[in-house]
Specification:
With about 325 residues, this protein is α/β, with parallel strands linked by helices. It is built from 10 helices and 10 strands. The protein starts with 19 loop residues before the first helix and ends with a helix.
């Protein structure tokens, strides 16, 4: 997600004693990946965590999307489409997630570039005011972030519905034709009383900056924002998604934010600040890096991305 504009505890579990498997892996698995294996085994961090705000250098490196219509190029497989209107889902009669509600928020909207006046108007995000939305970024070949996020959202919806979840999307590309604004995206999850909400993005940082990161809400209490009740559950949700995403896709935690943890905490995103349900963002990779772009434009890899996110959500909802 390229930030030309905006969007963009309960007590921590006791850390179990490390068993022989973890100690044996230490001799074989280097640095960041070992950390993730231990992290998954322990069920989360036992301290303040390595997550931190994105550095100014990383923020300044993010490129904005060139003006004009996004190109349809870059995909090695067609975008997955799931029938049905935006915001609705017909849950399966049974399944592990029966009775659970998940809101999926595909970052940006393919039609945003046609509505500059609408998406540039200011909205209240609790801590301050920001633009309603942005166009998002794209790969150098023109594959738009908004197209990527919608495709992954469709794939994710299908996976969750098969397990009985009721799934709602904040938008479905042409419905609405732009936006919705970041405050409305949060309200959709709140109104649905979602058990979990995930906003899907891809970053627009510099070449050489690679990897994914999950953005967690900071404890914010300002204006109309109060994330204190959901900051802890959101961290649990984000930690589980990060671990499963790494396992499913092989994409490593970001090498430019998060200190190798794949987790970043922010308080400047309206979609998180205004959420009253557990919610996180995931930056699936960096669209401006050629190696990451090769993954993001692959339909087979996007399926793996959806699978990893789905597994993280299921783990969170089943406790």
């Amino acid at each position: 997600m390229s930030y030309v504009g905006p969007d963009f505890d309960p007590p921590r579990p006791r850390r179990p004693r490390r068993g022989p498997l973890t100690l044996a892996l230490a001799a074989l698995v280097p640095g960041a990946l070992l950390g993730w294996l231990v992290y998954e085994r322990a069920g989360g961090p036992d301290g303040s965590g390595g997550a931190g705000a994105a550095s100014p250098a990383a923020s300044s490196a993010r490129a904005s999307t060139p003006p004009g219509a996004p190109s349809g190029g870059g995909g090695s497989a067609p975008d997955a489409k799931t029938p049905g209107p935006a915001g609705s889902s017909a849950p399966a009669a049974s399944g592990a997630l029966k009775g659970k509600v998940v809101v999926i928020d595909p970052g940006h909207n393919p039609g945003n570039y046609r509505h500059p006046a609408e998406i540039n108007r200011q909205v209240d995000i609790g801590t301050n005011r920001k633009e309603c939305d942005t166009t998002g970024t794209s790969t150098n070949s023109g594959y738009a972030e908004a197209r990527f996020t919608l495709d992954v959202a469709h794939r994710l919806r299908a996976l969750l519905e098969r397990q009985g979840a009721t799934v709602r999307l904040t938008h479905d590309g042409d419905s609405p034709p732009w936006g919705p604004c970041v405050d409305e995206r949060a309200r959709i999850g709140n109104t649905a009383r979602a058990d979990a909400a995930v906003s899907i993005h891809a970053d627009g940082s510099a070449q050489g900056n690679r990897g994914f990161h999950v953005i967690l809400p900071a404890p914010v209490h300002a204006g109309g924002a109060d994330t204190r009740p959901v900051a802890g559950p959101s961290k649990d949700l984000g930690t589980r998604i990060a671990g499963r995403y790494l396992r499913s896709t092989g994409e490593q935690p970001s090498n430019y934010v998060g200190d190798g943890t794949g987790l970043v905490t922010r308080k400047d995103l309206g979609g998180l600040n205004l959420s009253t349900v557990p919610k996180v963002f995931i930056e699936c990779g960096n669209m401006r890096d050629s190696k990451d772009a090769a993954l993001l434009t692959s339909g087979a890899w996007r399926q793996k991305a959806a699978q990893g996110i789905s597994e993280g959500i299921v783990s969170f909802l089943r406790g």
